[in-house]
Specification:
1 helix, mainly alpha, rod-shaped
């Protein structure tokens, strides 16, 4: 595997981790934290 591909995969997995963290945080935000 080329080094560029490895970096792309690392970047992609980091992005997916970030998206997953944002999703799970959004799932657990108490309703009083959501601006009305």
């Amino acid at each position: 595997m080329k080094k560029e591909q490895e970096e792309d995969i690392r970047w992609l997995s980091n992005r997916m981790d970030e998206d997953f963290e944002q999703l799970s945080e959004a799932d657990y935000i108490p309703s009083n934290k959501i601006p009305s």
